[in-house]
Amino acid sequence: MTMDAEQLLTLLAVAEAGSVSEAALRLGRGQPAISERLHKLTREIGEPLYVREGGGIHLTPVGQALIPDIRQLRAKLQDIENLLMRQKSLQAGELRIASTSLIANYLLPPYLQSFQSQNPGVNLYIKGSSSD
Fold first, then answer.
1. Which is nearest to 70 in space by CA: 94, 41, 98?
2. How far out from the chain centre does Cα 82 lie?
3. 10-residue block means of pLDDT along the chain (132 residues)?
4. Model's pTM, two decimal places?
5. Integer distance in angstroms from the first to the last C-alpha of the chain?
């Protein structure tokens, strides 16, 4: 199978919006792009995931069965995105410093205290050598 997360998330958006056109608006995509993702996903799975009813859609039992797992996928992807954003903005991560003992003991502490107060989610690791 070659389905991807975007196809699955598109199905979820359509299910939550109740129509392809509303999902397209929410996702900032054109309606043809949304329809194409749904068609690719349907082909990959091998059976219909939804049926069109009036101006909206209705999920088939297979489509309905996928929704809880796709919601979990969306939550996990959001967790990953949040983690990466925290690391990028120095709200999380690690800073490793190797220096001589003299610098580590006498010169770095005020700078590291300032850095730590501004970036409390970043773990600091200092390795000093005794080659002073």
1. 41
2. 7
3. 86 95 95 95 94 89 97 95 83 85 86 88 83 54
4. 0.69
5. 60
